[in-house]
Amino acid sequence: MIAVPNDNKKREPSMKATTNRFISILFALILSAHAHSQPTGTPVVIGEQLTIESQVLNEERSLIIGLPASYGTGNRSYPVLYVLDGSTHFHYTTGITQFLAQNQFIPEMIVVAINNTDRTRDLTPPSEEAMEQEFMPTHGGAGNFQRFFAEDLMPWVEENYRTHPYKVLIGHSFGGLFAIHTLTTRPDLFDAYIAISPSMQWNGQRLVDQAEAFFKETPELPISLYMTVGNEGGPLLGGTRKLAGVLGESTPEGLLWQFDHLPLETHGTVPHRSTYQGLEFVFANWTLREPERVYQQYGLDAIERFHAFGDERYRTERGIPALTFEFLLGGMGERGEIDEAVTLMSHPSAIENARSPLHSHLANILRQNGREADAIGFYRNAVQLNPGNEAARTALDELDVDYSDLVPEPVIDSRTLERYAGVYTSSEANDITVLLEDGQLHRELDGNRSQLFALSDTEFYMMGPDVRYRFIDNGESAHPSIHIRSGNIEFVAQRRSED
Fold this sequence. Notes:
alpha/beta; Lipocalin; 8-stranded mixed sheet
């Protein structure tokens, strides 16, 4: 028999209980003091969570939105990456997209991650299998979820963000199943699909037969598909391999696809590697990986064709990017191909995309080879692209060439300059301090100070590296922010409120 104390009877606390309570309170105070002693810093924000109302699903849906670092710097539009099982995959997906974009392997993208309410309902097509019908009674709503994308989500995203038409869908497991199902029933919804360990065992692998019929009936399909499977094995692996076999025999014109078996990855770890490799595959024509080899074997025409195909595929007008010119010019310089280098850097894409150091580098080569008249034009290009290119300016001074038309010197009133002074913070860089001394703005970053020279009332440059600071007016009652561009990296730094 267990004795139960009478809760209505008042009991005096024992000495042991009092001591334990004292120790607990003391320990809590120590923890509290320790917590208060922790240093405070600026939060690193990678996205925001919000809710939209879905008319199709008759419910609210939670989203996590990640914007590119350069989103606040201008009016550029961005492709959209839609991620299923959003709360699980959002964090590393934004990291991967940012990393690949900074290295110019893919474009910067808006990440839209969709959180679940009834995952089985939304991501599965109807099943004829008795066990799936019995144990997953809400299944079969994939068609309605497609309508949610088309009628609710995509219009909302396009209305509220600056979106480029190119759209990518990433799905894992049931999400991968939804991706394959959508590719074969509503291929127009997305331009590219990344299906990670898709649940192809669903409905007795009938989706394979559906896909085979669809591909045979579809002569042209300008879409990209990347599929992976980890170490799952069984009918999931079997169904995905069957689908890859179908694609190998019946590939519509324009469909670019790849299947990778990743046996060292589990069902839980395969999404990370697959997302990285999938985005590389989808944007394989964004930047040429070995431009020097291609140029040596096939010439500049092949490089132009590669990027023309990419522009058509991704609906852009980039031309040949700066990184390609950097590789090509470096190789030409090593081989002493001066005339070829001049032809290369006179290409329309080079004039528009290549950065200031490339023009000054070629100018140096020309000058060293006695071609000063040719060098002057490229030195001027270098200064026009970056008025702070000291080497190019020095060379033009030595050649007695006037370049004042390339370096404006606007007069800015002191009140405007005072408004710009302060400490600015961003997750992309350490704190940036803007100081006003003797009527001149200076920038301090990581202990280094540089003067800021004005191009206009709002835009400034530094001597040396091609870094631009453009102050953004947020209204009389708000602090300004800074749009910072350094090479191909752009971001916005916000003024600290206490300043």
